[in-house]
Amino acid sequence: MALTQVRPLDAAKYQSHPLHALERNWPETNCYVDLWVELLHGLGHEPTAALPFVFATDFEGDHFTFFKQPQEDLFQLYGLTVQEQPIWRRVVDHLAEQLALGRPVLVELDSYYLPDTQGTAYRQAHVKTTVAANALDLEGKRLGYFHNRGYYALAGEDFDGVLRLVPGLSDNPNILPPYAEVVKMEPARALQGRALLDRSLQLLKLHLARRPSKNPVASYRTRVEADVAWLLTEPMESYHVYVFNTLRQLGASYELGQSYLQWLGAQGVGGLDEAGAACRVISDGCKSLLLVLARAATRKKKPDLKASLDALEAAWERIFSELPSRLG
Prior knowledge:
7 strands; alpha+beta
């Protein structure tokens, strides 16, 4: 079987999208958003147009929204339909068939076999993650895939391991098949230029209407004191999990929000500078709070968060007093 690929990409030469630039506060946001940013970029689309959903981020009681690109937005902007892929044969057989049809496949794999996780999970820990398969060579044991901030390739033993082609993985009835989704593409429906901008603005108005009815930072304030008291009794591993699901999601969503407003400005939509600056305040403030909480968790000493939370809360109010009026 020859190499089958949706897009002719070279992992060694692939350039990540600027939304993943290392100089950003949050070069990685969450696995789903990062994956779609690079998949859209790799397919030749502008992923920034699909970011209006970040303005609906809320505090969900024990975490900030694990925000994701809505499937309906992906269809309206790019003509992409995401459907569950039932796994009733070997995973590799489904990948081969769908990629041959020109459809990327989003599939949950084990980071233990993903070389791009070198230094974290690769050959160290079994951690579930989602990648988007783009290229497959079954005979040569090669897989090209989007994951996190980029596009990568694996081969050999990693190929056998990640696709469960070795004894003990392929024939173990106690290991459930992974969850997978297939991305159907209708290029004629993909929008560009002014049409892409107009539809993106329509989606922005929709997501602004879905924004939280209560300032999410104010909601978080009622919880954070108890969270900090808990963190002071926990090892640092708990700190990392906690901040990923709280401050990182809030900060990353509004750094993306600032990037989206800058993209609108580059398309000729004016009057969004104040809202963009307020997004930056939230992004910067969340990153600073990460450091404050890290010191507190290390020293086992309760920090004073009032001024930081006041600034975040006020910035959120500025964003949503500015955007709806500017957009009519």
